[in-house]
Specification:
Organism: Solidesulfovibrio aerotolerans
Number of helices: 6
Subunit structure: Homodimer.
Function: Plays a role in the regulation of phosphate uptake.
InterPro entries: PhoU, PhoU-like_sf, PhoU_dom
Subcellular location: Cytoplasm
């Protein structure tokens, strides 16, 4: 029986990680669609989001099956609940990718522009956040989990700085406000991706230690 549940838990973890990589790729495509002004990339993100949603539903069903079949306790139960918590965050990362792609399509209707340096910095930080979250979840890496929680504050500060910059930009009535508004939405989407990564890191802490670390990093 023990070998059977271990196999199911490993499969559940693998499929959850597959969903995460799909969402990670969606964010990467969405960001590139904005910076390269590529509508095909944006359209692909929007269309492919259905696959992430489908996998989320499949994972929910699998989690319920494993819970009902084994009635797990202790570490096994935490592992299953940890995956369950992560799956919802992963689906929301995919949704944010769609939002970013849609904003990129709106920007295509406006005059081409050089992206603000802070937006480039935020996009790169988000890519790093996603990559580190994959490592954190795969290895149940507590050090990485705490690091992600702490670095989420840096993401928030960067997002606020960019929003302030765009607010200054919009105060000049001679400048196109629509562009700044869309950049603000993109920045918020990237920040929310990092928020979901932080939630996944908190779920890793829960899985390893059985402690609730939501809304804090210790």
């Amino acid at each position: 029986m023990e070998r059977i549940i271990e196999a199911d838990l490993q499969r559940l973890k693998t499929e959850t990680l597959t969903a995460f990589h799909m969402a990670q790729a969606a964010v990467d495509k969405a960001v590139r669609s904005v910076f390269t002004r590529d509508p095909a990339l944006a359209d692909a993100v929007i269309v492919e989001d259905a696959a992430i949603d489908t996998l989320e539903c499949a994972l929910d069903a699998e989690i319920l099956r494993v819970l009902a079949l084994y009635q797990p306790v202790a570490g096994d139960l935490r592992a299953i609940l940890g995956c369950m918590r992560c799956v919802g965050d992963i689906e929301r990362i995919g949704d944010q990718a769609v939002n970013i792609a849609e904003r990129g399509l709106i920007l295509l209707e406006l005059e081409a522009f050089a992206p603000p340096p802070k937006l480039l910095e935020l996009a790169e930080a988000t890519r790093d956040f996603l990559a580190n979250t994959a490592v954190c979840f795969t290895n149940l890496d507590m050090d990485m989990a705490r690091r992600l929680c702490e670095e989420s504050l840096d993401i928030l500060e960067l997002n606020v700085a960019l929003l302030k910059e765009m607010a200054e930009f919009m105060r000049d009535a001679a400048r196109p406000v629509e562009r700044a508004v869309q950049i603000c939405f993109i920045a918020h989407g990237l920040k929310r991706v990092c928020d979901q990564c932080t939630n996944i890191a908190e779920s890793v802490v829960f899985t390893r230690e059985g402690a609730c670390s939501r809304h804090r990093c210790d």
